[in-house]
Design goal:
single chain, about 70 residues, mainly beta, four-stranded mixed sheet, 1 helix, elongated
């Protein structure tokens, strides 16, 4: 019998783990939510998630310093 485990979403930016403000939000909406606390996220991107144990880690990356 298979057991389903709900994975906790965690959003990581600049080495900090940020809580999920609303599980119904898309990851891009969560990033927009955190722009007021981290203005460098404006125009940033969400990296596809990586599973760490029972957590699903989404990383936010700013475009600051990107070349090209």
């Amino acid at each position: 019998m298979a057991i389903l485990v709900a994975l906790e979403r965690v959003f990581r930016f600049s080495g900090r783990d940020l809580p999920d403000p609303n599980p119904n939000m898309l990851p891009s909406e969560v990033m927009d939510h955190y722009v007021s606390d981290f203005p460098q996220l404006l125009g940033g991107k969400v990296v596809p998630p990586v599973q760490e144990g029972d957590r699903l880690i989404y990383e936010f990356r700013s475009n600051f310093g990107d070349k090209g």
